[in-house]
């Protein structure tokens, strides 16, 4: 039986990998690993210097817990087996394990805005991880790149990704936002503020200004803050208490359901903005709203994981891709091999 390795990272990345595997695990031997690195970055990871990234810290521990709870087979760094295919949500680091293997890159969500590090990485060859997700896809060290929408395909090609490698499949977790409208979250008709872990990743954020602006936008409406999973909770609570007294704060919970029940969504750089746009919420973001609307992940009733599995089948066995684009599409049975 051919083997496939799924590389996780954040819970968003790991759950995407899991969803894709569900369409493949009856015909392939599927294994999982938290995100990892080789060489110098790998050595720094062992000493805890990368705990603020998906390589370690809470990201890694949450992924390990998820893999254990879901009883998925773990092969850390892919050392146990030789693999016929490897899937990953990030090419900011290209692990030795990926070289000479068939690789599929899956877009994890929104990419960071371009900055100086993006251009120095692209034109001067500095490590892509310095520019964070703005350089997603630029390694071109993959056979196919499964992306969220036609808008993202155009953007990645403009950035320098190879046209023929990009497949518009939609992406799991962002392809069926309507399901979040039916939920048990008790609060209704509020302003939801989703924070980021910008400071935890050693970048600058004027959190005071962000909170005060949210209070201005709310104009007396109840404010709910949903903290980023990687954020320092105590610091955030103190800031909110000082600058937005009376706000409700959640450090855990289903963000998408909270978005479904809100009237206004405020965020800076987060993929959750797409959930708000799809559900017709009034959205405030640091990104240009016209651009965001052109990038919205396709809504295909949750077929993205199936679509990506077909790209996997195509790459391994030459099977037709059969990618479904529309809300009235349905998944036909996958033939046995």
Description:
It is a single chain. The chain has 337 residues and is α/β, with parallel strands linked by helices. The protein has two domains: 3-175 and 297-317, Rossmann fold (3-Layer(aba) Sandwich), CATH 3.40.50; 177-295, Rossmann fold. Helix content is 32%, strand content 12%. The protein has a six-stranded parallel β-sheet, with helices on both faces. α1 packs across α11 (304-317).
Question: What's the SSE blueprint?
Answer:
Layout (H helix, E strand, L loop, with lengths): L2 E5 L3 H11 L7 E5 L5 H8 L10 H13 L15 E4 L14 E4 L9 H9 L19 E4 L2 H10 L6 E3 L22 E4 L12 H12 L4 E4 L6 H11 L4 E3 L4 H7 L2 E3 L5 H7 L3 E3 L4 H7 L8 H14 L20
Parallel strand pairs: 1-2, 1-3, 3-4, 4-5, 5-6, 7-8, 7-10, 8-9, 10-11
Short characterization:
This protein is an alpha/beta fold and 337 residues long. 32% of the residues lie in helices and 12% in strands.
Largest sheet, in brief, is: 6 strands, parallel
Q: How would you classify the quaternary structure?
A: single chain
CATH topology of the largest domain: Rossmann fold
Q: In the CATH hierarchy, what is the superfamily of the largest domain?
A: Glycogen Phosphorylase B
> So what's the overall shape?
globular
Topology as H/E string? EHEHHEEHEHEEHEHEHEHEHH
The CATH architecture assignment of the largest domain turns out to be: 3-Layer(aba) Sandwich
- Name the helicity range: 25-40%
- By DSSP (H or I, 4+ residues per run), the number of helices equals 11
- Low-confidence regions: 326-337
Strand runs, count: 11
Structural class: alpha/beta
For the biggest β-sheet, the strand order reads 2-1-3-4-5-6
Report the mean per-residue pLDDT as an integer: 91
The figure for the number of domains is: 2
CATH class of the largest domain: Alpha Beta
Strand content: 5-15%
